[in-house]
Structure formats: structure tokens, C-alpha cells
Specification:
The protein is mainly α. The chain contains 5 helices and 2 strands. It has a two-stranded antiparallel ribbon.
């Protein structure tokens, strides 16, 4: 397999062209993965020699209010501090409608810088 080698981006025109090429390649990759997924659905895993293309199982749990309370109580009974294990998601924190100054009094904000494209 040959990987594309690009020159250092030194102009806006070059950056625009590179961005467009990335969009094209990512669209082609998405289509190829969809085709391979359809094949795996019918025929099973595909071993390329380096990797195996197949489904993997990922599990998550959700709890209602009573279940979450019971979970925390069982942690305490086992000597585990539930506040060190449980956390609130960013989306649930947004639902509270509190601004950063209020939340900053109770916790520390962690920001992650992620490089990606987005629609205008």
C-alpha cells in the first residue's frame, strides 16, 4: 500500500486543496467501509493478514434514579467512595443550565482540542 506524501502547506490555496482532498478521501473511505460491512454481514469476518474486519461488542449501562441510588449504596457498603467513581456527563451538566463560573466553584473544567471539519 502506498501512502500519499504531501508537501508542507504554505499557502491558503494549498490548504484549501488539501482540505478538499481529505473530504474526498474520507467520503471514499466511508463508502468502502459500508461495502465491507455489508460483505461481513453476509459472509462473516474478513482477515486481511494484518487485521480482522468484524463486529466487536461494546456494552454500556443506564440506570433509573432508583437503580443509581442502589448502585451508590452498594459501593458504600463495599467501602468504595461513589463520588470517586461516578461523574456527571457534559450533556447532563448542560441540562442544568449553570454557567461556567458556578460550575468552576465545584469542579475543574477539562477542555480537549479536537481537529475536525464541520459544515458551515
Amino acid at each position: 500500500m502506498v501512502l500519499a506524501k504531501t508537501e508542507e502547506v504554505k499557502s491558503m490555496d494549498h490548504a484549501i486543496n488539501l482540505g478538499k482532498e481529505i473530504e474526498r478521501v474520507e467520503a471514499a473511505l466511508k463508502a468502502m467501509k459500508a461495502e465491507l460491512k455489508a460483505f461481513v454481514d453476509v459472509n462473516g469476518p474478513v482477515d486481511t493478514g494484518d487485521v480482522i474486519w468484524d463486529y466487536s461488542i461494546s456494552a454500556s449501562w443506564s440506570f433509573n434514579e432508583e437503580g443509581l441510588k442502589e448502585l451508590a449504596q452498594n459501593m458504600v457498603l463495599e467501602g468504595v467512595n461513589p463520588w470517586k467513581v461516578l461523574n456527571i456527563t457534559a450533556s447532563n451538566l448542560k441540562k442544568l443550565g449553570w454557567d461556567d463560573t458556578i460550575v468552576a466553584k465545584m469542579g475543574e473544567k477539562k477542555e480537549t482540542r479536537r481537529f475536525s471539519s464541520r459544515k458551515k
